[in-house]
Sequence to fold (136 residues):
Amino acid sequence: MAVERTLSIIKPDAVKKQVIGQILSRFEKAGLKLAGLRMLELSEAQAKEFYAVHKERPFFSDLVTYMCDGSVVVSVLEGEDAVAAHRQLMGATDPKEAAPGTIRADFADDISANAVHGSDSLENAATEIAFFFPEL
Ligand code: CMP
Fold:
């Protein structure tokens, strides 16, 4: 196993539910260290750029609107197999399919407001970390 870094976003629905602390606590309890942490509001241009890979998908416009509808908390998580470990903590993209005890099962209502985002590969993690934390 290797020490990796991955990007986490606590999305507007979870921020509004006041579960930032509970979610960050799950990362720390799982042994993931917070190497960077910031609360911000995404501009429309930032949301479009961040999710550019989805720009042809039918949900793209709604996704951008939702991600700009309030504050988000972005963080860099560091630890053994951080990309996979973080994805396991989050659970499936669709909360209806997320395993019990995962963040999405516990805090998300819907696939379009699914509480958290996490990098899906080490390569994308590097790109996503640089997007929010160019200094890291
Ligand atoms: P995320 O992991 O942030 O990556 C892209 C996001 O698009 C995803 O989580 C979902 O919140 C959102 N999304 C909305 N509708 C869909 C859908 N039908 N399929 C996949 N992702 C969707």
